[in-house]
Amino acid sequence: MIRRVRTSKFVDHLVQNCYPYSRQAGVRFAHVFRAADRQAELIANTSMEKPDGSKYILLTEGRATVLYENENQVFYNPVQQFNRDLSTCAIRAWSEEYTEQKTTAKRNQRKKRKLRNDKHKISAKENLKTREELGAGEEVASTDTMEEVPLPDPKTDEVNTEASENVTPAAQGERKKAPFITILEALSATGLRAIRYGLEIPLIKTVLANDFSPAAVKAIERNVSYNDGAPGVVVAFHGDANAVMYSHKTKPFHVIDLDPYGTAAPFLDAAVQAVCEGGLLLITCTDLSILAGTGYPEKCFTNYGGMTCRTEFSHESALRLVLSSIASAAARYGKAIEPLLSLSIDFYVRVFVRVRNSPIQGKLLASKTMLTYTCSGCGSTSSQPLGRVSINEDGSQKHSFAQGPPVSSHCEHCGFVHHLGGPMWAGPLHDKGFIDRIQKITETLDPEIYKTIPRIKGMLTLAKEELDDPFYFTAAHVSSTMRCSCPPMTTMTSALLNAGYKVSPTHAVPGAIKTNANWGIIWDILREWIKANPVKESNIKEHSPTKKLLERREPNFAVDFTMHPEANPPSRRIKIARYPLNPPNWGPKARAKGDKPFNNHKIQGSGSEPVPDAPNNWENGDENEEVDTKKQKTS
Fold it and tell me: Does residue 356 contact residue 366 with C-beta atoms inside 8 Å?
């Protein structure tokens, strides 16, 4: 049975609050929502039996199986299984952390209520003692009786007793959290990802699989009916992704997954409003030719509000541009983001972001946003935060303008001009604790079902090792700039570690180095390397950056190339699949060419009248609800 989402209340609010000059546009926009209601009811009146799998082409991934009518209809990229496996693990890790935070918050609330009630009891005792001293003790109840009567909870009107003290451990084990997590896959296509979420993640109440293509909605219905356990959990819905998310501002989802073909920029504003406090956003952008390329800077700024960097760390700058765009959209509504995991994978970027309702944290966005100056000659970089935050003596924050720029008009190392990139996210890309949770979950998974576990472990290990300092470089690139032989990676990292700086690899590019050392230190290390590995003077052109860099042959500090114990990162010592080779034809597939969407204005029920609104029952869930498993089994 396909259930529906009611949007009529939102529509009424939309039309009533339109200004006179925009009322006509508001009414037109409202027709989309009402048509979605009518079509959802039309779908709800029809139920599908389980299809005969022998009549279709079957594709199984994880615990889900999807059906295709013919080979030409198959839109399935096996390389994306890594994306879906990782997303499943990430949502499980988030749900564990979310549940723990809610449980801790409830425990703290109970403690506060108990302290407040204890104060009331103490106050009652003092009043009783005073009255006894005044000679009215015979008319007042004893204090022992007053202590035995527990006070009611002001929120639930229930007696505030410690239930755990009166319940046996066996009875406590029979109680567990009821399914409460609601997930929206706004661009669902075949519904494979939504079905996997519904079957593989605990505590899932509803997964709304939405798509704007009627053919895709039919495929989702068929696939949901075929997978045992999916009906009743996975809900197919036909509608515009933004319209669905805007209609859930007052009843937000716990998790929203956006995996479009191309950019996710048109959906970010609606997504940050439709996710709950502490909820999770999973966002994919596949337009790396714009995010990480140099051919479309104007398009990059149009989509993400920033310019990419024309350098070798463009894949990290792509991640930071996407995060900055999400953070800017959230800050408009008094929200702030916490990047939990940000990855550059194959031909796309994937970010996992927690959203908080925190205007105070949102005000820190300027200090977490930066411009980047990149030298057009040697590739040296410098970052300029857009804001500055100082802490007063009383602990309050003072926001002020940043001072800059950090560089002059020409590079101090080679004399070439700078290119400007950003604004982009300047904060950390990952949460190490969140990565630990995912790694623990991967240890419990069946490798026959989750076939990309080795790659997940390798990429998570690399992400956990990464420094929070922005950007990376490769020894091959800097040695090419100096026209010298390339030093081994361990030699380069040893020199940096021996000088007292931190180094780490990056998940984005094999052989790249992240460090908190400035570019003057890096060029000094190469100057020392050139002493033992001289360059050919004939390779140095007169007006090249190399000429300027080698005008000073002596470094400013004593460079030590002695092998450092930590020159090889732990991920390299334990022999994991850090940068596996991509299989043949691993790139993105062509855009789906489904049939045209329904004409929403002509959707009607079995009779001549349009289908009426139905109650919004599917989304009634509460993460605070508990259920007794013994009652479930007998009901």
Answer: no
Beta strands in 484-631 (DSSP E): 503-504, 512-515, 626-628
d(CA 40, CA 47): 12
Contact 420, 373 (CB under 8 A): yes
Q: Which token pair is 180?
A: 């409460």
- Statement: the pTM of the whole predicted model exceeds 0.90: no
Q: Within 231-349, where are the H helices? A: 241-246, 268-274, 288-291, 297-304, 314-331
Look at strands 253-258 and 275-285 and give their pairing.
Answer: parallel
Q: Which residues contact 564 (CB under 8 A, 6 or more apart)?
A: 493, 494, 497, 498
Task: At 189, list the tokens.
Answer: 């296509």
The position carrying tokens 């009549």 is: 55
* Three-state secondary-structure class, residue 553: coil
Of the candidates 517, 536, 537, which has an alpha carbon nearest to the alpha carbon of residue 525? 517
Strands 348-356 and 512-515: unpaired
Q: Are 469 and 381 in contact (CB under 8 A)?
A: no
3-state secondary structure of 418: strand
For 415, the token pair is 């004399």
b/e per residue, 309-323, with b = 16+ CB within 10 A?
bbbbbbbbbbbbbbb
Residue 335 near residue 362, CB atoms below 8 Å: yes
Q: What is the pLDDT of residues 378-437, one digit of tens each?
A: 999 999 999 999 888 888 888 999 998 999 999 999 999 999 999 999 999 999 999 999
Task: State pLDDT tens for residues 437-467.
Answer: 999 999 999 999 999 999 999 999 999 999 9
Distances (CA, A) of 329 to 272, 273, 308: 7, 9, 19
Contacts of 449 (CB under 8 A, 6+ apart): 62, 63
- The tokens for 210 are 């939405």
- With a cut of 80, say whether residue 253 has pLDDT above it: yes
Q: Could you give the CA distance from residue 348 to residue 342 in angstroms, rounded to a whole number?
A: 11
Q: Residue 633 phi/psi, 5° resolution?
A: -70, -30
* H or E element that contains 496: helix 489-498
